[in-house]
C-alpha cells in the first residue's frame, strides 16, 4: 500500500504539472546550450603531457603490487611443485649425489665467492657511512654522478671478468674485491634508511634468495635457461624506468608508473634472473672441461651474476619498506 501511494503521488505530480510557457522554453533552450558548450569544453581530450604530468591516482602502484603478489604466488607454487618432486624429471639436487668431486668443488667455490662478495660490499658501505666526507661524495645527485656510478660498476665488473682465474689470491681476486668495493660505495647512501629497515630487508632478501635458489636446484636443470632473451629485454625496460624515476616526481602519473616498473617490476625481474643464473652456474659447473690443458673453471665470474641479482633485490626491498614507513 505504501509503495502504491508513493507511485501514485509521483505520477500525479507529473500529470498535473503545468506546461512551461514560451519564455520558459526559450530560457531552457538558452541554458541547455550553455550547458552543452561547457560540457564540450570539459570533454576536450587532454594532451599527452597533461596526462603524463597529471596527479598520481595510485593505479600504477596498485598494479605493481598486484604483479608482485602474483609473482610471489607463482614462486610459492613452483617451490611446492618442484620441491615435492612432482615434475617427474630429475633436478640438480637429485643429480648432485652423482656429481664428480670437481663439480661439487666448483659449485662450492662459486657460493664461497658469492658470500665473500656480500661481506665485502656490506663492509665497504658501512665504512663509507661512518665517514662524513666519503658519504658526501657518494651521496651527490645529478646526471653526472649517476653516469659515473654506472660506469664505475660496469667498468670494474668488466675488468674483474676479463682477468683469467687462477686459484689462490692474485690479480683476479683483487679486481673482484675492487668491484665489490665500488658496488658498496654506490649503495652506501641506503644506510640512511636506518638499521631496522635494512635488517628487515636483509632477512626478506635472504628468504627470497633462498626460496628461489631452492626452486632452481629442485627444478629440471635446464628449466629456466631459456629465459635469457626475455630477461635481457626486461632488464632494458627496468633500467630505463630506473633512470626516468630518478628525475620524475613520483606524484605524477608518469613518475609513479616508472617508479612502479623500477621497483616492483625490477623485483620480479631480478628474482627471475636469480633462477636463470643459478641454473646457469650448475650448467657450467657440470659441463666445463676438466683435465690437463683445460682452462680452470672460474667461480668468480660465476658468482658475480647471482651477487648482482641479490644486491638489486635487497635495494628494492629496502626502498619499498622505507616507502611504506617500515610498516609493510
Average pLDDT reading: 74
Q: Based on Cα principal axes, name the global outline.
A: globular
Question: What is the helical fraction, as a range of percent?
Answer: over 70%
Distance from first to last alpha carbon: 55 Å
Return Rg in Å.
30 Å
What fraction strand?
under 5%
Structural class: mainly alpha
Query: What does the main sheet amount to?
Result: none
How many H/I helices?
Answer: 13
Overall strand count = 0
User: Low-confidence segments, ≥5 residues, pLDDT <50?
Assistant: 1-33, 38-43
The secondary-structure element order is HHHHHHHHHHHHH
Structural commentary:
By secondary structure, this protein is an all-alpha fold. Helices cover 74% and strands 0% of the residues. The chain has 13 helices and no strands. The protein is globular. The protein starts with a helix and ends in a 5-residue tail after the last helix.
Task: Describe the structure concisely for a colleague.
By secondary structure, this protein is mainly α. 74% of the residues lie in helices and 0% in strands. Helix 4 (59-83) packs across helix 10 (195-218) and helix 6 packs antiparallel against helix 12.
Task: Break the fold down into its secondary structure elements and pairings.
Layout: H1 2-16, H2 22-42, H3 48-52, H4 59-83, H5 92-95, H6 101-129, H7 132-138, H8 143-162, H9 171-186, H10 195-218, H11 228-245, H12 253-287, H13 299-323
Helix pairs in contact: 4-10, 4-12, 6-9, 6-12, 6-13, 8-9, 10-12, 10-13, 11-12, 12-13
Key phrases:
mainly alpha, globular, disordered N terminus, 13 helices, 328 residues
Amino acid at each position: 500500500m505504501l509503495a502504491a501511494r508513493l507511485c501514485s503521488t509521483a505520477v500525479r505530480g507529473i500529470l498535473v504539472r503545468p506546461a512551461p510557457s514560451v519564455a520558459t522554453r526559450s530560457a531552457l533552450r538558452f541554458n541547455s546550450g550553455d550547458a552543452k558548450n561547457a560540457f564540450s569544453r570539459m570533454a576536450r581530450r587532454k594532451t599527452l603531457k597533461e596526462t603524463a604530468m597529471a596527479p598520481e591516482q595510485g593505479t600504477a602502484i596498485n598494479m605493481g603490487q598486484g604483479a608482485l603478489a602474483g609473482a610471489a604466488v607463482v614462486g610459492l607454487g613452483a617451490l611446492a611443485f618442484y620441491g615435492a618432486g612432482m615434475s617427474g624429471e630429475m633436478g640438480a639436487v637429485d643429480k648432485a649425489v652423482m656429481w664428480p668431486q670437481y663439480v661439487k668443488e666448483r659449485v662450492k667455490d662459486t657460493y664461497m665467492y658469492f658470500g665473500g662478495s656480500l661481506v665485502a660490499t656490506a663492509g665497504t658501505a658501512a665504512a663509507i657511512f661512518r665517514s662524513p666526507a666519503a658519504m658526501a661524495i657518494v651521496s651527490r645527485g645529478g646526471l653526472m654522478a649517476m653516469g659515473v656510478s654506472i660506469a664505475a660498476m660496469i667498468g670494474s665488473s668488466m675488468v674483474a671478468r676479463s682477468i683469467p682465474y687462477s686459484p689462490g689470491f692474485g690479480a683476479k681476486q683483487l679486481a673482484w674485491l675492487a668491484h665489490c668495493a665500488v658496488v658498496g660505495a654506490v649503495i652506501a647512501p641506503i644506510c640512511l634508511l636506518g638499521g631496522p629497515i635494512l635488517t628487515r630487508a636483509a632477512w626478506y632478501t635472504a628468504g627470497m634468495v633462498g626460496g628461489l635458489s631452492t626452486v632452481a636446484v629442485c627444478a629440471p636443470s635446464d628449466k629456466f635457461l631459456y629465459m635469457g632473451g626475455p630477461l635481457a629485454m626486461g632488464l632494458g625496460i627496468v633500467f630505463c624506468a630506473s633512470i626516468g624515476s630518478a628525475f620524475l616526481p613520483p606524484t605524477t602519473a608518469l613518475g609513479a608508473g616508472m617508479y612502479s616498473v623500477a621497483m616492483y617490476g625490477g623485483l620480479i625481474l631480478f628474482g627471475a634472473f636469480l633462477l636463470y643464473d643459478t641454473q646457469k652456474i650448475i650448467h657450467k659447473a657440470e659441463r666445463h672441461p676438466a683435465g690437463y690443458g683445460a682452462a680452470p673453471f672460474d667461480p668468480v665470474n660465476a658468482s658475480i651474476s647471482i651477487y648482482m641479482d641479490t644486491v638489486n633485490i635487497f635495494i628494492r626491498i629496502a626502498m619499498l619498506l622505507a616507502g611504506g614507513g617500515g610498516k609493510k
